[in-house]
Amino acid sequence: MSKNIIALLPDHVANQIAAGEVVQRPASVVKELLENSVDAGANNIKLIIKDAGKSLIQLIDNGKGMSPFDARMCFERHATSKISKADDLWSLTTKGFRGEALASIAAVSQVELKSKQENEIVGQHIVIEGSKFISQSECQTPTGTTFIVKNLFFNITARRNFLKNDQVEQKHIVDEFERIALPHCDIHFTLISNGNEILNLAPGSLIQRIKSLYGSYMQKDLVPVSENTSFLKIGGYVSLPDTAVKTRKEQFLFINNRFIKNPFLNHAIYEAYKELIGFQSHPKFFLFLEMDPKHIDINIHPTKTEIKFTDEKSVYMLLLSVIKRALGKANVAPSLDFENSITSDFVTTDKVYAQPKVSYNPDYNPFKNAASTGYSNDEGGLQKANKQNWESLFSGFKDTVGNDVQSETNEQHAIEILKNETLEYNVFQLNFKYIVTSFDKNLVIIDQQRAHERSLYEHYLKTKSENRISSQQLLFPEQVELSANDFNLIKDLKEEFNVLGFDIEEFGKNSIVINGAPADLQDISVVQTLEGILETFKLNTIDAKIEKHDNLCRAIAKNTCIKYGKILDDTEMKLIVNQIVKCDNPLYTANGKPVMMEVELNEIEKFFKK
Q: What's the whole-number average pLDDT of the chain?
């Protein structure tokens, strides 16, 4: 007799599994609650968090509130007021519509809800823990909704253990907060973390909202984008090419005020900047697309950040052309003026132009002695022979294990000789990029930027709290406005910055003052250097897990070392050589890039003997 093994999961288990798709971290809860408040018509929304949302997430809005029945019904799975039939998915104007969010949140936390409609005398107070309904009662509360989420993942210990530290989780919360606040400039948003006000965004225009979030300096970096067609409306701002940064920050793309991620449209944006920004540089953009909901499908991902278009190619081409036109108006992209006729003073009718004549020797034959030289008269033979000869120059540096070991041994030998302080050697600069010197009849070629970066990195890495780098006070302290995430990062790294010679103090909300910089750093822009250090630090955090002090030392070294193109005199070049040979690991930068190479004399002689 067969045994049945398939059974329905209990509701609380099914809810926890479903919650895994919607609630991945505290920021997921923040996103869903903020969207509900916007859909409820609120014009004042306050978000309060503790311990990066792990202990408390509280959202207070002045929206239209809920009736006693709706207040209880909203926690049921797939209970929604946004749609009633499948066709409604093609006419959505709200952010939420599936009815999964509140049920998922209640399944993995302790939830309290207080809500009241304007025409009601009292509101409703509901308590739910881990999908288990505890109570519903009347209460005094203002019009709108207050949602309290405590102890997220209290009943799923494994999920809670996978959460990152408070700094990382708060960064994700701020990111979600910004994605909701940017398109809804008419709403007053407030964010409070552990009793400290992080953001207070008063209603205003889009550029005012951008300045409130990322600093007033952003306005001079942006150019407006605007286009209105029957199919698609595009608005917002894009950054000037010379303000491109090394990380993908301040990049926002919205469709009908919903934040989306779309690699295809991102490609259109980058294509508009083609040949205007450097390799691995990224523009900033705040772009808002509006189109009929019937042309898009947002119901393809649980978080609703990925969408599909019925005519994606048209959206791509419109977006590309609009951004290129905006950059052209700002005089940063090449453009043609078709309104003015093209004239040329050499186009005449009364002058005869003779064909230019070139003198040459018709009997000259460069392959006359091909037999004696070993070259072939045909083009392929010439290229092959040249290729073979050029490869012989680098035969000692081929990418094989044995040759790598031998090369590194030779370079270590060169370093030991160069460490001799009494050694007299000549140096010269090659292509404003390399320092070339010689020892024992061999050549050593040193990358000037990487060598200086390595020596600075080890210099900063060896500093400790009891052995700080001296700080040079600035004649005029520099005030810097930062985004909320960068401000929190500065606060977290403040002690490390102080150890490394930076004198930084908080100056109001999301603003700092730089009073001093490391004494050994001269002729640098302190503000630009600090911004570059933050960008490099965040980039290193993305690429690999690096200890905080180590990461900051790498970032400072990379942003304060001499750069390619700098002309060095003999004294400077010899100083760099002396510094790099005394490093613990002079052959590679902190991220593993080679610093120097050696060319042996016998390899050079082998080449010229052929």
A: 80
